[in-house]
Prior knowledge:
Elements: H1 2-9, H2 12-46, E1 57-60, H3 69-74, E2 79-81, H4 83-116, H5 126-141
Antiparallel strand pairs: 1-2
Amino acid sequence: MWEDFKKFAFKGNLVDMAVGIIIGGAFGTVVKSLVDDIFMPILGKITGGLDFSNKYIVLSGEVPEGAPLAKALEVDNVNLLTYGSFITAFISFIILAFVLFLVIKKFMAALQKEEEKPAEDPKPSDEVVLLQEIRDLLSKQS
């Protein structure tokens, strides 16, 4: 049983998949930072100071009008719908999906190009060349 587990756990494909998952997680963090720290401030500047991080709807409880999200969350017995966080996460998803689309498209194009290459005839071994010469000599003698 232990040998079967070792074969499964340490197969090249499984290790490759684990590395891919770890790199994917790190890539997701980079995309989140790109959206939160670069893209959303630019979008806020273009829209005249619109800040999605402070967008919420009060479902129940009393929150002072215009209070930032951090202050609204401090109020006791308040229930908020923080849709600004969702908008930011959705933009992160769209950017990540687009980048993955480009990477996969490039990979598939390279794979198709490699499949379209005509296979070169392998050079025959020395033994095969020698046997072909013997065959040709015998056919000339007959």
